[in-house]
Protein 1
Amino acid sequence: MKGKTWLFWGGLIAAAGGVLFQTSYDVQDLEEKLAGLNRKIILEQESIQVLKAEWSYLNDPSKLEALAHAYLPLQPTEARQFLALEMIPMRPADAPPPAATTPGLAPLPPMVRAPGAAVPQVAARMPVPAASTGIVPVSATLPAGAAIPKTVPMAKALERAPVVVPAALPAPADPSAARPARIKPAALVPGAARAPSEPAPAAGRMAPNVPTALNRPTELASRPMPVAAPTPAPKAAAAQPSYQPKPTDSLGLLVARLGANR
Amino acid sequence: MTIPPHDQGGPAGYGQPGASTGSSYVPPPAHKPRTSLTVALEQSRYRLMVTAAVVTAVFGAIGVKLSLATLFAGGGEPRQHVALELDNTTSNRADIIDRNGNLLATSLVTQSLYADPKLVSRPEEAAQKLVSALPELDYKEVLGKLSGDRRFVWLKRNLTPKQQAAVHRLGIPGVSFEREERRFYPAGPLTSHIVGFTGIDNNGLAGMEQGFNKRLTAEPGTPLQLSVDLRLQHVLKKELAATVQEFSAIGAAGIIFDVRNGEVMAMVSLPDFDPQDPTGLDPDTLFNRATLGVYEMGSTFKIFNSALAFDSGKIRVSDAFDAAHPIKIGRFTINDYHNLHRALTVAEVFQHSSNLGSVRMVQQIGIAAQKSFMTKMGFTKPTGLELPENGWPLVPNPWREVNSYTISFGHGISVSPMHTVAAAASVINGGQFHTPTLLRRQPGAEIPTEQVVSRQTSDMMRRMFRFVVADGTGKSADVKGYVVGGKTGTADKQKGRHYQKNSRMSSFLGAFPMQDPRYIVYVLVDEPKATAKTYGYATGGWVAAPAVGRIIKQVGPLLNVPTVDENAPEILNSTYLNAAGSTNWQQSLPPVTAPTPPKGSTVASFPTQTKPR
């Protein structure tokens, strides 16, 4: 009887000791992982800082003006080009609704956004082949009968901004860079210039940083994209390979980008 | 305890119970004789008890501590690694951003190379290798550093990653890297005089970097937001540079100012410098003409002279003053640039920028009133702008009659352009003086204001401003749609004790839209030379006014200022003034162009929407 009691307690102590040691090693492992993650976060933050600085550097108004002079037929706006809102008559009630809303036309000027805001563009654009340089109408990209998650229009809007590199930049492996010098305003997003050349895991790694202010859960940032995007994009690219935005579009985009209408 | 004298003491007494009944000594009970064994037993019991007590106390303390440490301390030692806060920044100095969030200054992590000469075994070889990897280093200097006695020498600060890799590959013992931060200015020279720069150890040496050094290092996580707008800054600098080039000037200064809250939207001083590398340059480039330089402003000061005249209540806009006869005071003779040889109304004095008329006005008002008014306008102390480069005005002391005469047309008192702009803003914005600021005012925060002139004075000054641009010396500043008003200024520069005829400061203080002023655009050009295109003139109206016009044309849309028709009745109602000093625009118009029904009436049935701001 006494021996059994000893055995029981001894076994209990041994088990507890074993569990304790196991836990302790687990904790050590986790601590090491945490330290590694912290180092990575710091590294990421430092590179974000560098990218922000580069972004601001490339967005220097003097540079933009020189580029606009070289590639765009735009002049500074004059007073006669503005019209008071009350001068525009209201639309008659029986008029047809507008054909298609264009969610991608007036994004917030990225330079005004929070630092993390450039990341979803990278993440969203990753799966898209570099060939899809044209602006893709939303309707064309939807596979028939496909269940569209709510997040798609936003993602499409981001997709619509084609990955084109200004000629002044070193050209990555992007066929659109070989196009003639005319640059679509949407392409003046320098954050996009680097996107194609980055390794694919970058999207997954950076996805948790996506700000929740974009009306979608963080986990969805990278997930639905590979399902929806890769199939329609080549189709659309084949359908409209040589779409050039109208001058009116580019003006609107430029104004939106400069934040002048806000 | 008292021992009786007959008691001999000792154990012998135990054998005689009751022998000493008179004593207070009580013998132990007879049946338990105190043998040496009993004593020893008792002693050891006490000792045991003491030992047990000590052991219990110690173990009790250990037990308490153990339970505290295990049960109540949240499970063991403090964590070695704590998850980082995601918003936290890695740098030690806060960013500086403009009002739209564009970076103006940021800190980037770099590696710096240092050596511990004690650990360098062969300095010659190490120096040879280092110079081969970093060709910009000098071999002799490196060798001297490496063979010295100190334990720490910097070899090169802020290496690029490529250079770092090259040095790393050499594998020289005793040479290692230190993580450092370097200030980087993405906007470059564009905001150099506002943002300033830092030294190699990242302490601010000029501009906001110096003025807010403590704040930038104390809260590295929150960026410092300035009131400047990078786009406006660019437009202003571009036009100033064009003007400087066109008129071969030696410098220029420009300010765009929000008259409603005192925010400086843009401020440029030319020539400027590259904040990345401010050392070893011409010190003139570091000089901030817009805030540190104090100049005699010339005719721009007639703004304040007229405001003083209206505010005193003694002079009305239609009053006429003699402007034909030069004024002699002491050894000075005051005359006009273009003498019109007749009496002028106050409006005409302002329109033609007449010195004589201004002097006659101040003669009527008095010296004391002028002095107190100029003090109220902030011309006797620095502006209170956050920059460390803040000039003290040069004010005459004592303030004599001759000083009051010259001050009426802007000579004899030297203030910085920022003084002029802040004071002019208070004259046209309804009379509220705001201390100029370079920090963005938080929406909803209270703006410190001081009422310096009356609302009526301010209203009349707006008309005077508009009159100068509509039909005066500042016509070339006019921009269709933006109802520009302003005042030209030309001052001869003083060299030594004399004024020079051909070196002058030409300036223009423009404001728009005059029916409800929102922004002041100020341009000052230092020593412009006349060109053939300006018919030999280099005055404010020929040099600075066109620049202001071009600036307003470009910044108006950026600032979201609605365009209006200058000749619309509601605009004329609040901006019209004629040479006779009448504000009634309907009388002055010929009957044919008498007010037509407003264009908007044809769509009056639609609900009017206000333009969003």
Protein 2
Amino acid sequence: MPAVQETIEQVRALDVDKYKYGFETQIESDLAPKGLNEETVRLISAKKGEPEWMTDWRLEAFRRWQTMSEPQWARVHYPKIDYQELHYYAAPKSMSGPRSLDEVDPEILATYEKLGIPLKEQEILAGVRNAETGDGLDGEGGGEYGSGRVAVDAVFDSVSVVTTFKKELAKAGVIFMPISEAIREHPELVRKYLGSVVPVSDNFFATLNSAVFSDGSFVYIPKGVRCPMELSTYFRINERKTGQFERTLIIADEGSYVSYLEGCTAPVRDEHQLHAAVVELVALDDAEIKYSTVQNWYPGDAEGRGGVYNFVTKRGDCRGRNAKISWTQVETGSAITWKYPSCILRGDGSRGEFYSIAISNGRQQVDSGTKMIHLGKNTSSRIISKGIAAGRSDNTYRGLVSAHRKASNARNFTQCDSLLIGDKCGAHTVPYIESKNASAVFEHEATTSKISDDQMFYCLQRGMSEEEAVALIVNGFVRDVLQQLPMEFMAETQKLIGISLEGSVG
Amino acid sequence: MAEPTRIRTKAEEALANHFAALDGDDPIREIRATAFDAFLSKGLPHRRIEDWKYTDLRNLMREAPGPAVPAGIDDARAALAGADVFDGVDRARLVFVNGVFMPSLSDMAGVAGDIEFASLNAFLARGGAVLDRFAGTDPGESPILALNSAFVRDGAILRVKDGAKLSRAVEIANVFAGGKPGLQTMRHQVRIGRGAEATILETFSGPDGVAYQTNAVTEVQVDADARVRWVVAQEEGAEAIHLHMLIPRIADRAVFDPFNFATGARVARAEIRLAFEGEAASAGIRGIAVARGRQHLDATLIVDHALPNCTSKELFKAAIGGEAKGVFQGKIIVRPDAQKTDGQMMSQALLLSDGAEFSNKPELEIFADDVICGHGATCGQIDEDMLFFLRSRGIDKSEAERLLIQAFLAEAIEEIGEEAVVSALEARTRHWLGAEQEVLSA
């Protein structure tokens, strides 16, 4: 099997889109029957061993969803999705009962390793050594923060397969676990916050997610705690014709800090896969959440066959005074992206940030941006968005900045720049700027241009190939955003940008 | 009637009744009916219609008065006397009162040899073709246009001859007269000949305290190498609803610079849909809006670059006081063939009071790669530092504020580049600011 896999990979590597995560893991799965009805919802809830209130919550969402229609306003075009043709639950068969790394199917571990996420190694190297010396947090934990130790929650199709560093995090009081576990173990927290940022009936896809979400991460950082390491979730869609609906809920209590990373990949498939996630962030007084995404779902081939539909609702609520939420996203994958990570700046003095790089090639369609909703006094927000369109793709920035009546001294700065590579692609900017307070100051600027001939000439003349030159120039173009990414992601992202744009020149 | 019947609003119901009461022998009855059906199928636009997101006409237009009764000559003359925004500008004049051409009040001295003119009404009597002469704009896509085609009564059909350099500006004055609410509907069609040069002024005015409505669509064909200044001054009465579309089409190397000055009406929407139909043409599209009280002023702009080497520059400024609401929507479209397009758009708003609101939506829609396009948008209040600078030099607060607002607006007005027109509009803004300040200090 591995030999075959290798051959497939090598062939894939020659393909125009060079998607290197397109392999498939052969593993037995437990699939829910196709289609969506109340039974499916009950089945998912039962599989997760959920309490009754959760089942009711899902059913309520499902009933609402049936009355809703798919949004049409985004600049994306795709054939109608048949929601009855999908599996709403897929779990590796070996996954039952309590789990530790040793019990995880080796095939799955191998998958993650191939993706560059060595779950096992990391735990042994860092976790065990720490356990031996006995210093958890205050010893080298603090010093090592940011130097590569990352706690990972790995989500495979519909379930979380493993969460690393759980013990060490627990020492700091940090709760980091699959949300399905949190529903059982910390129902009071989940009940209080779930759906409080993205209400059940917020939009079509969020409501669908509320009804059928299977897993995702739950994070709670207690008062005054600076999370000792980066937290991360790695999403992988493997099974055919499944939808992935994960739900992430992060709560940063007063004065706490957490940095969270999210990565995603999927195998190469001819048909489209649906991914409709909901992410909710809650930052209380003086808390800070930094949420970074490197989204690299399978984008489909050069002709637009296959690829993931990424219809995601992400929203952060700066509920407390001086809270801060920062979104950083690198969007290179997905056939269609429909995603607007937002900040509700409710607490006085709170701050929202959005840094985005969206790259589209082939026939990809990206409609992404943010919403900064200023409700409290002295709130500020900053938006830096860099869109790069190549091939026959469409890349749209769509963003809202609004100041409500009471948002005195609200401040926003927005910059969105688009770069066009080739004359078959489109770059669009659709900002909405609404001010209902005279003391609010909003500034917005946007530019669209192509890579200048001068820059290209300069690079070529120094012996770079055309593709290298484009990658270099683009990396310069997106530098403002790259700098916001955690170290580990920065290098990977730079490479990813090179790969995404391959085949876009000449 | 397979379609489910939408519940009509009171205004839509009234419009349907007015439409049914129109003269049955009308030679363009069919065109009107098609247009009105197109309107009724969607009804008045509301906030869930993207183009009308910030101007919810269903909510803002509760009543719909019937077609205005033509004014008597004395009323018309009195009303025209109040419409004096360009008094200091040397100009010929075509006067429309309550949507009807008034030859006796018009004056074409000095330009008669360079211009051909007829009233639309004379053409309508002979049948319909004239209405789609330049149009080609589908009535289904714009409720303003659909209502205009349904109710149009008169308008100016104007042609500036090839190569003519007009010695005076030409004003198309649209005046509402009388104390009774009514709807005036005009369709002006103007063609500026090859290589011609002209300044056209389009003015709108009417009495305060009368809830009349204006629906005006102005189509302009700008032939190759022509140069045109087009200034719209909207000073409708305080209770009026004003809907206006300016639809210019611009040929090779022509220069068309429209300016939209908006200060009147309770609710106003000034829409410019400009299309480049030739290469290397340019347009400088600018405007200011000043609003107070509970006014709602909307400036909407679509600039369509379909061909290479065209340039468009947009600058819109707004000063919003009281509980008024300002809206700017601007969209630059660059189609795949429109390489070497240069499109720049700037929208700036000053909020003068706590109750004021401004919504800004500057859009870029770009399908060509060799272009330079950008937009900027700002919104805020008068800069404290600038205010301090002036006050530290002994200028009192209200005077300092006035100077700053005036300077802010003047940046756009000065771009018109014709002294008499500039000073006329600056005088108007000064007048407005004086009145606004009385409100502020009261």
